[in-house]
Specification:
- The N and C termini lie close together (10 Å).
- The protein folds into 3 domains: 256 residues, HUPs (Rossmann fold); 148 residues, Ribosomal Protein L25, Chain P, CATH 2.40.240; 117 residues, Ribosomal Protein L25, Chain P, CATH 2.40.240.10.
- By secondary structure, the chain is an alpha/beta fold.
- Helix 8 packs across helix 9.
- The structure holds adenosine-5'-triphosphate and magnesium ion.
- The site of adenosine-5'-triphosphate has 14 residues, from helix 3 and strand 8.
């Protein structure tokens, strides 16, 4: 099915998560409530994979009149994370979503989590192990071979209580003891073999300070945080499928009748071709200055995509189009670009800009004359209106729109050949001016005064092979244009054992052009304004560097849509 067909399909069938939710609603499992959450760890910026998860969680809640929490999973005491917390909130809002109430933090639940750990100890479902984590790992066994029970497994409840309390009170050093769930050492699922649920870590936490020197493990913290927040459907990626029995086991032992019991549902994470999606690897690019920062327009981060010129609507549409899967797969990055072009094609005004200018003097056009031509802003959408664009004796065209020794199929400008200037006149190249090094510096052309576009004359209807974009030299504004391309030249940059992903960076992923000319209507372009530069692609003003007196544009994507072509 092509993307377009899928988009216009009237009513989509339910995806498997929606089916689960509808089943729960039918059984009145949670009193008709649907509550989801997005649980990022504040240790990096969000990327397009997170965007997929955000769109999914918020859309599910919206569809069933529910709500979505934002929960920072700060279980691990890490260094200062304020920058990440703030960027995550900004990115979610930019995507068009608002979480319920205040953002939440797993660390806010440390007291409750500790109480629950005590409850497990008190009911005989957790014990303190004095062995090192290395020894514990050695006793784990293999999936086909049972593990060995710890010699401390059958301590009395009183002894466990005493030790766990003293762990909390800071009487022991890091690693001296751990708290383990007492489940069994024979399960084929390794996560179920008496997993560690609390460890000693004398480390300051950025929110709780030095209050705690024991911290819960992810599996214990995550499910119980879901429970605290009355999350009905806890959606996560496939690698947590094997954690689900533990998620359920812990809840079985803590659940109180009449409360909402969360259900974990897994889906396949988004993988995109030509992209890396690991926060650790993205951080390496930033730290080693291989990109200009987390928001470098080539980064797959949400803030990078934003700066590149992606729209929230195009990302939401992409997330919806790819749907959700139960098996890992790789999505072609061309589909993401297609979704963006589809949006910008309808919403971005079309303007003229010349990236590599070549001066053209129209010798039979009066020197002091100028005309303001009326041009449609977007033929796809009449309501976007028209604007005036100046025409005069000297204009710029694109250097590669002229060839001195043009092959037959070159339908642009060449000596003695005619082209139409978009929305203006037909010109003919009469003379090529060169400098002492044989570089072309200027063209001398004549124009046909009767050929003005839309004037209704015979000459205006005359067909010539090529149409070029142009700007009037004396009216044009100088601009810098950063021509971005994909960051990696390899389809699967992180997928090579013998090759460092950083060696696979596309050397042509950024070309900076400083001598560009854009039409005067762009003078007051606001930051993040999006345009189609006629015949060149989609561009936007850089939200950090573009100023009215010093315009800077980023190329978002070229016009060519390899996805549309492939699926025709
Ligand atoms: P990394 O492993 O790169 O650090 P992570 O998955 O651990 O990423 P989290 O901050 O824990 O990052 O992720 C928050 C949420 O986003 C989780 O629910 C996670 O499952 C989801 N998520 C992360 N990456 C993807 C992806 N590529 N596709 C879909 N969902 C994702
Ligand atoms: Mg994670």
């Amino acid at each position: 099915m092509t993307a377009e067909n899928k988009e216009t399909e009237e009513k989509k069938s339910l995806n498997f998560i929606e089916s689960f939710i509808e089943e729960d609603l039918k059984n009145n499992k949670n009193n008709g409530i649907v509550m989801t959450r997005f649980p990022p760890e504040p240790n990096g910026y969000l990327h397009i994979g997170h965007a997929k998860s955000i769109c999914l969680n918020f859309a599910l809640a919206q569809r069933y009149n529910g709500k979505t929490n934002l929960r920072f999973d700060d279980t691990n005491p890490e260094k200062e994370e304020v920058e990440y917390v703030e960027s995550i909130m900004e990115d979610i809002n930019w995507l068009g979503f608002q979480w319920e109430g205040e953002p939440r933090f797993t660390s806010d639940y440390f007291d409750q989590l500790y109480e629950w750990a005590l409850k497990l100890v008190n009911t005989g479902y957790a014990y303190v192990d004095d062995q090192s984590s290395e020894d514990i790992a050695k006793q784990k066994g293999t999936p086909t071979q049972a593990g060995t029970e710890s010699p401390y497994r059958n301590r009395s409840i009183e002894e466990n209580l005493d030790l766990f309390t003293r762990m909390k009170n800071g009487e022991f050093k890091n690693g001296e003891h751990v708290l383990r769930a007492k489940i069994g050492m024979t399960s084929p699922n390794m996560h179920m073999r008496d997993p560690i649920i609390y460890r000693i870590l004398h480390k300051e936490h950025h929110r709780t300070g030095n209050k705690w020197c024991i911290y819960p493990m992810y599996d214990f913290a995550h499910g119980q945080s879901d429970y605290i927040e009355s999350i009905t459907h806890s959606v996560c990626t496939l690698e947590f499928e094997v954690h689900r029995p533990l998620y359920d086991w812990i809840l079985d032992h803590l659940y109180v009748e009449g409360t909402i019991r969360p259900r974990q549902i897994e889906f396949a994470r988004l993988n995109l071709s030509y992209t890396i999606m690991s926060k650790r690897k993205l951080l390496e690019l930033v730290q080693e200055n291989l990109v200009s920062g987390w928001d470098d327009p080539r980064m797959p981060t949400i803030t990078g995509l934003r700066r590149r010129g992606f729209t929230p609507a195009s990302i939401r549409k992409f997330a919806d189009t790819i749907g959700i899967a139960k098996r890992d797969n790789v999505i072609d990055v061309a589909l993401l670009e297609h979704s963006l072009r589809d949006d910008l094609n309808k919403t971005a005004p079309r303007v003229m800009a010349v990236l590599n200018p070549l001066k053209v003097v129209i010798t039979n056009y009066p020197e002091d004359k100028e005309e303001w031509l009326t041009i449609e802003n977007n033929p796809e959408d009449e309501t976007m209106g028209t604007r005036e664009m100046p025409f005069s004796r000297e204009i710029y065209i694109e250097q590669d729109d002229f060839m001195e020794d043009a092959p037959k199929k070159f339908f642009r400008l060449a000596p003695d050949k005619e082209v139409r200037l978009k929305a203006a006149y037909i010109i003919k190249c009469e003379e090529v001016i060169k400098d002492s090094n044989e570089n072309i510096t200027e063209l001398r052309c004549t124009y046909d005064p009767d050929s003005k576009s839309g004037s209704g004359t015979e000459a205006s209807k005359r067909k010539v092979k090529g149409t070029l974009h142009w700007v009037s030299a004396k009216h044009a504004i100088d601009a810098e244009v950063r021509v971005y391309d994909r960051l990696f030249s390899d389809e699967d940059p992180a997928g090579h054992k013998d090759k460092d992903f950083k060696k696979l960076i596309n050397p042509d992923s950024l070309k900076t052009l400083t001598n560009c000319k854009v039409e005067p209507s762009l003078k007051d372009a606001e930051p993040e304004s999006k345009y189609q530069f006629q015949r060149l692609g989609y561009f936007c003003t850089d939200r950090r560097d573009s100023k009215p007196e010093n315009l800077v544009f980023n190329r978002t994507v070229p016009l060519k849509d390899s996805w549309r072509k492939m699926n025709k």
